[in-house]
User: Fold this.
Amino acid sequence: MRKIQICLLALTTVFATACPKYRPSVDFNNKGSMVNRINDRFRDWQTDYHNALRATPPDLAKAKTARNELIEEALPYIDDAYTDFITDIQRGRDRTNFVADVIELGTSAAVGITNGQRPLHILGIALTAFRGGRRSADLNFYKEQSTPVLILKMDGNRAKVRAVILTRERASVDDYSMGAAISDIVDYYNAGTLVRAFTELQKDTAIQTRQSEDKVLELKGVPITQEAKEPFVALSKSASNVITSLDADLLGADTAKKDAATKRLQKIVAALEKNKDAAAALKNAGVSSKDDGAKLIDALIDIRAAASMVNNNALLDTINQAIVDNK
Amino acid sequence: MAAQQFTKAYVSSMSSLKGLETTCEGDETNLTAKIISLQLATDDGAKVTAGKYERVRGVKLGELAFEKYETDVDEQSLKAIHQTKEDSFLFKGQAYVQDNPIKVLVFREKA
Assistant:
């Protein structure tokens, strides 16, 4: 029963869908196909090109003409194939997407009814491939937008390569060889593929993301911090190490350590209460040296952060010194 | 609950990247927070480097290491160098040093 269901699914896939199209049609086995027709022209012009270069003296002008003629004769084949390709993806997407939905559901169901690693593996691959096909051919949800965007991107890619070719055609064969020309023709073909369109769109998105990342943040009313002096930072670090240890002791299960941490914090706060500015900050935070360790450490952490935010380094030095000194 | 965050604005005329690094280390300790980003900013129109921090308690953070880079190759090389020292890469950002914007990689040195 399972075999029948899987076979039915596979046959439905084969007969109901064509392979998703990602690029203009290229059939290497068809004598009349685009590739073979281009290759025939390549062969003729390349023969002329090489004969011109091998002549004594080399006929560079003739070689250049052969090279440029090859380019200009090859490109219309690619343009024709591209036009057919565009027409196909515009016309064929609704049918493809409908079948895609059917297959996706069918494959999921088949995965559900199939035991064993191999059938799961095969179906999983088929499903992934088909989802990829849908993504490239068109997405149902965005069908009004995605196809025109992709076509525009391909048109743009092709125009860029065409502009490069036109510029290079003016160059001599020393600067722009036949090999480079053929490479450009291949580039021109690739520029009209969905794969390249997606790649270029991703690049555009990456550039836009980078530009938005580079956008300058606008702050308002944040006190500007000057470069810190080494002694200030060293004292801050020492105090921070003490605070971290006391915080850990207060959170731990060791009662003796908790008591010791509380006593030390009370001693620190008592010392700070003797300083006018520190006492005001403690009062503002609602703590005194009589409070428990957890409340005191929270207050000290908040007071230090608040002082740092307004660059009150004098208060920070006072607090940090008290933290380090009162053991 | 999201961790408490702080944003500090650093003067664009920092004498050096090391100076900014030291300043940020001081702020990490006093804010009881770890640095999470550095970016170019304006503060009421003035050029500044914005440093964002996130509250973290009970952890000795260790030293920071700021590295200037220009190209992707620099970036990868510096990451590889710090990886060999077992430093942790934190983030990449931008900062003003002597009023010039530079690209910065931020690492946490191995304790």
